[in-house]
Write a structure and sequence with these properties.
By secondary structure, the protein is an alpha+beta fold. The protein is built from eleven helices and ten strands.
Length: 410
């Protein structure tokens, strides 16, 4: 059975336009994701420049309204853009930026018109990069338990607290976060959702040097940070959704993070693995000649294809405004567990070289070792695998008289 989408003549004509533009605007110095040795400020600057170029065309956030800096394009156009950018081994945006995919979407749904005009054009045109700050030492999967405090003081809020496992390296321009705005109010009715300029006095970013995560797009994005707020004064204007209404805003970006905002694209690790197995000999023949290796490669390919099709389905459902229920956490759960199964299969095929990052001894220039680490790390961010199962159960009505509704995306 063929699950691949079919394309209209208009889509194919747009595809040619996109291909020509990318040929002229994607720097040949931007590294492919399989080349794990190339990262750092130079790669980041190249990707940010490409992001601004895409933003000026309205292609960075293609389906966002034009009046807020988006492209105002159809879902059909957006799919073509995602696929063509993916052919370069890049994503949209081509760097880690939770502002547009998660925070920007939350402002679109819950922000006032003035807030949309203030924040969204900067995000959708690639002028700023934004980090999300959710996890705290005592609030991980249970995000509603955040202790970071925001107290009203005239036209400002004074924020104190700590967030962990934040962002990437190379900094950001804005941070969006969830805080406690009322210690006496009931749970879920005591939160505030803020957009915070990253250069405000009292903000300290400290890299978590012993923790290097994997699996994100963009140069150097594996680093995580602790962010401290020490009497940070944030304009009251930057509170999105209203006082003590932060949880409803959070349901939007959590819905996207839990799998409804998945991107379209191939798993480049799989391409790299297949290429490595074709070129690497064992007992005088390429690995791909070994029937056991071929069986495991087929398993890996099927896992990657199912994950891609889940993401493609959810991408279409989100942008066509089809009602979502369990689909987001279903895709997230499959991706997390599939990553573990794939990493086990890779270890079976490659042995110790899959655990070595050294360019000489490590498989795929060390990219396979990166996958081994990221497969373990990935079961936690965006809600653990167990949390995804709980959400799915609530959405289909197991153990509840009233089914939980998905977070608002429009």
């Amino acid at each position: 059975m063929d699950f691949e989408p079919r394309y209209t003549q208009e889509q194919e004509e747009f595809r040619q336009e996109v291909r020509e533009w990318l040929k002229d605007n994607v720097s040949p110095d931007i590294s492919h994701p399989a080349d794990s040795a190339k990262s750092g400020p130079e790669q980041y600057d190249l990707r940010r420049d490409l992001g601004r170029r895409l933003g000026s065309k309205g292609w960075l956030w293609a389906t966002a309204p034009e009046e807020y800096g988006g492209g105002g394009l159809s879902l059909d156009h957006a799919v073509v853009l995602e696929e063509e950018v993916d052919s370069y081994g890049l994503t949209i945006p081509p760097y880690y930026d939770s502002g547009g995919r998660l925070g920007g979407a939350s402002i679109m749904v819950w922000g006032s018109e003035e807030q949309k005009q203030e924040f969204l054009p900067k995000i959708f045109r690639g002028e700023v990069r934004t980090w999300q700050l959710l996890t705290e030492p005592e609030a991980g999967s249970d995000v509603a338990s955040v202790k970071t405090r925001a107290e009203r003081n005239g036209d400002e809020y004074v924020i104190n607290g700590q967030k962990v496992f934040v962002g990437s390296d190379l900094g950001c321009d804005y941070m969006w976060t969830l805080t406690c705005t009322d210690n006496e109010a009931p749970r879920h009715q005591n939160l505030g959702w803020f957009m915070i300029p990253a250069d405000l006095p009292g903000i300290t970013v400290q890299p978590m040097d012993l923790l290097i995560a994997g699996g994100e797009s963009g140069a150097g994005s594996g680093v995580k940070n602790t962010v401290y707020f020490d009497n940070v004064r944030v304009p009251a204007f930057n509170l999105v959704g209203g006082e003590n209404e932060g949880w409803k805003v959070a349901t939007t970006h959590l819905e996207l993070e839990h799998g409804s905002g998945g991107r379209i694209g191939r798993n480049w690790m799989v391409d790299n693995l297949f290429d490595y197995c074709r070129k690497t000999n064992r007992r005088g023949e390429p690995l791909t000649k070994d029937p056991d290796v071929r069986d495991r490669l087929i398993d890996i390919y099927m896992e990657a294809e199912v994950a891609r099709l889940f993401n493609l389905r959810n991408y279409w459902m989100r942008h066509s405004k089809t009602n979502l229920t369990y689909e987001g956490p279903q895709a997230s759960y499959f991706r997390k567990m599939s990553g573990l199964r794939m990493s086990t299969a890779i270890l079976d095929i490659l042995g110790p070289s899959a655990l070595t990052h050294d360019e000489t001894w490590g498989a795929g220039n060390g990219h396979m070792e990166s996958h081994q680490r990221s497969a373990i790390v990935a079961i936690h961010p965006g809600g653990t695998a167990d949390i995804q199962k709980v959400i799915m159960a609530r959405r289909i009505g197991i153990g509840r008289e009233v089914r939980e509704r998905a977070g608002a995306l429009a």
